[in-house]
Amino acid sequence: MSVSPGTPLRWAEAWAPASVGNVSVGFDLLGHSLEVAGDWVRVERVDAPETGAGVVVVAMDGLPVDLPFEAERNTAGAALLALRKGVELEFGFSLQIRKGIPLGSGMGGSAASAVAAVVAANHLLDTPLPAEALYPFALAGEGVASGSPHGDNVAPQLLGGLVLAFPDRLLRLPVPWELHCALVHPHQVLETRRSRAVLAEPYPLSAFVEQAGLLTRVVGACFTGELDLLRDGLRDVLVEPRRASLIPGFLQAKAAALAAGALGAGISGGGPSLFAWCVDRATGEAAREGMVQAFRELGIEADGWVAPVEGPAARVISCG
Asked: Is the pTM of this model over 0.90?
């Protein structure tokens, strides 16, 4: 469809990638995008109704279960509600969602729908915002699914690559090696709210101090290029010990990844997916095969992928 110069766009479709949240050491703070799967959202600019919030979800595809069509209960819809309010738009949006990321997988699926929605809608604004300015709106959508807003998936999906998500800004970290990530999704569902519930009991101060030290090792390694520093730091002493029992086969799969030469491995986001960081693609393929096989030996089917840690950002793929 051709659009004449000066004619406002009426619709845009955007894609947002999967992501690995937490990366073992950065609970709710650190994540990276991964071009192994993604969600698509088509947003149409419409006249806002005299009543109602001005955002309507009209279709959803690729879902094994029903998700809410009410905008305020839908991650993509809630993100657009926040965008309309934040920039005081006079027009509204209708949206269609096509899921490519499994639900409850720990691959950033709820965040991807929110991010794709705001990226598509931003393309329809008279004055589009920079990607980082979309962060609070996408975060509002993510919060609908998880029960609390956290940016470890939203941030890398918006900016691409490895990102630290602070409350007031985003920091994209350098990835100085040919790091690849093996991501394995066992055919299990672990809802984010359940995986966060096991973290409710207080932690000793010593655990926070240790985890902070591990995070600084990983961040420092990104800037210095010291792989030994990264290998020493890529461990989780806070979240993984409490969540491991929620994922049958986790310990066996993690051991298989490390045996294959991974620098470190752990739970992706809230799980049940596992990730492993590796020095190159060949090691990543070996780690992926090891994890998949470990699950299968326990009678659990699993899918696996390998892609660079320096993953893509969400993008508009068509408009008119």
From this structure: yes
